[in-house]
Amino acid sequence: MAYVNRxxxxxxxxxxxxxxxxxxxxxDLLRTAGEGGISRLELAERTGLTxxxxxxxTARLRADGLVAEAGRRASTGxxxxxxxxxxxxxxxxxxxxxxxxxVTVVLCDLTGxxxxxxxxxxxxxxxxxxxVESAAGEVEALxxxxxxxxxxxxxxxxxxxxxxxxxxxxxxGFPEWDGFPLRDALAxxxxxxxxVDKDTNAAALGIAVVGRESGIGKTGDVSPSPLESxxxxxxxxxxxxxxxxxxxxxxxxxxxxGEFGHQVIQLDGPPCxxxxxxCIEALCLAAVDxxxxxxxxxxxxxxxxxxxGLLDIDLVxxxxxxxxxxxxxxxxxxxxxxxxxxxLEGVDDGAIPVxxxxxxARGVAEGAALLLLAPLFGRGED
Length: 382
Fold this sequence. Notes:
Blueprint: H1 8-11, H2 21-33, E1 38-39, H3 40-47, H4 51-63, E2 67-73, E3 81-86, E4 92-98, E5 102-109, E6 114-121, H5 128-143, E7 150-157, E8 161-162, E9 167-168, H6 182-190, E10 194-198, H7 199-214, E11 229-235, E12 239-245, E13 248-249, H8 280-289, H9 293-311, E14 315-319, H10 321-325, H11 327-345, E15 354-356, H12 363-373
Parallel strand pairs: 4-7, 7-10, 11-14, 14-15
Antiparallel strand pairs: 1-3, 2-3, 4-5, 5-6, 8-9, 11-12, 12-13
């Protein structure tokens, strides 16, 4: 595949070899500094590394083309300091979102910014071989003529699944996927590293890594601290949750955390595709189908309130195409339930805030690309 540069000689940099702890610290600070850059002295002060260690790391990063000078900055004494910046185009990753009825593919640079995008219909029930071939074809079409080195492909899709092995479990409504080795199948087809995770985990990772810089929701009034502990609730063709606790994605011992949609809240409720009755997912989607968006929002709010009470998180973020079609109604409805729960419990500082997640329709795909990029910056690893 001509667009993939596999060796150091071909690409000029082996990004996967840069995942040392100290280099990751430096790269993450360069990433968050943006175009304005940061000096070596500031890097040493903020990482706790010696100036000599920072100089060695940045020299190697410059030689590999990852870092460039961004000018000089006046100092309080002595000669002006050289300012360094990350070179976003030095590496790229593909994010692939396999939804039940469509596929979204994005190409992201090292900062996570999207530089190319494709979206086409997809039938997740068409069979594993057909879906893998279709997904691989979309990746190839996206990269055709791009002329970039690619770290690999991050894949996000409905769970449950085994993130560590890249093997799917019994995806609700698609039992034929149970046990399919998606990671190995796609890696073999495309010839690049592949990482697989749940759609909600990928989106939550993207928010945890880049949300601090981009702001949360439309108002941008959320301080950085809540990004250390939040729940991302994704309501689209299904319902799930991505959990960030202590700044990292919480996947659980068997990567099964976040199966939020299948908690039963009505014992005699409607049947769900998972085999139970009265699941939040079934109740939410049934209400949406009836046009009762306010009811769907309140049902989602009940689940969110249970999650807040269980984990004591700081923020609830809402995403997915169903939420996107009725943002105000869902934020208002979920927020009202959380406010009522806080009042009943006598919480002094009020209810946990509810916001629309950043990223919009391609938020999951962007997060999928971060599955490859985040470890370079010491983020997103188990």
